Amino acid sequence: xxxxxxxxxxxxxxxxxxxxxxxxxxxxxxxxxxxxxxxxxxxxxxxxxxxxxxxxxxxxxxxxxxxxxxxxxxxxxxxxxxxxxxxxxxxxxxxxxxxxxxxxxxxxxxxxxxxxxxxxxxxxxxxxxxxxxxxxxxxxxxxxxxxxxxxxxxxxxxxxxxxxxxxxxxxxxxxxxxxxxxxxxxxxxxxxxxxxxxxxxxxxxxxxxxxxxxxxxxxxxxxxxxxxxxxxxxxxxxxxxxxxxxxxxxxxxxxxxxxxxxxxxxxxxxxxxxxxxxxxxxxxxxxxxxxxxxxxxxxxxxxxxxxxxxxxxxx
Length: 315
Hints:
With 315 residues, this protein is an alpha/beta fold. It has helices spanning 4-8, 37-48, 62-71, 75-83, 107-116, 123-128, 158-165, 194-199, 224-233, 240-263, 285-309; strands at residues 26-29, 56-60, 133-140, 147-152, 176-178, 181-185, 207-210, 268-270. The chain starts with a helix and ends in a 6-residue tail after the last helix.
């Protein structure tokens, strides 16, 4: 594998002051496993251009992970993980599909390696920053509907929150215990958390959403075999509401996209291009590099648009 610097060098830009440009206030990041490489490209370009106007970041799953290191001004941690650790056989273990006691996604290993890198995550900055990250998780209850739970990097356990937000049902066999809650993948209840930004009082014009699916994408029902697999894994009666949520997930996700596009025209969205080929479990280095560069280009296009809106005397 090429060195990370060799992979990234062609996409670096010279820092440019963006003071005076029309700024946003809250950044909303979708999840999607390995599709998160698009987010890494977008946020790498933002940092390279010195663009950081945010008062808050809200992320689900991979979006929470990438948003957290971006808030700590350490996007290189996510970039390096996507180009190295996550491509290894240590993280994605498809051979464990039929081994009920084994994880398909080894989140424990991923979080440990992600944080243990040289330079480590800057917890102090995350605790004191004026731009908190809201990490979206889902709280599981026996014999009761699931609900979203929003954790804050300023006051909650960051490592547990990140692990919980990415704990995809069936792919990660356990829930993540936190205080009195049993937590799992935030995408189950809130896969695209722009409504949380609206609930927090932000106006549509202040919100930027970055998705990991191209414009116009709509989710299909789970395949017959995928449905059989997770129904067999969660066959006990106590999981009936979880099964219901998983069966209805495609509808919830599509409704969120419909409402975003039709009812909230003031919210800007950065989408991957139509030829974005990374999926949740991609392990192809070429596809990951392509997805990263597509994120960089999408961010540049967005920033050029801001430049065109800027006052004529802006730097």
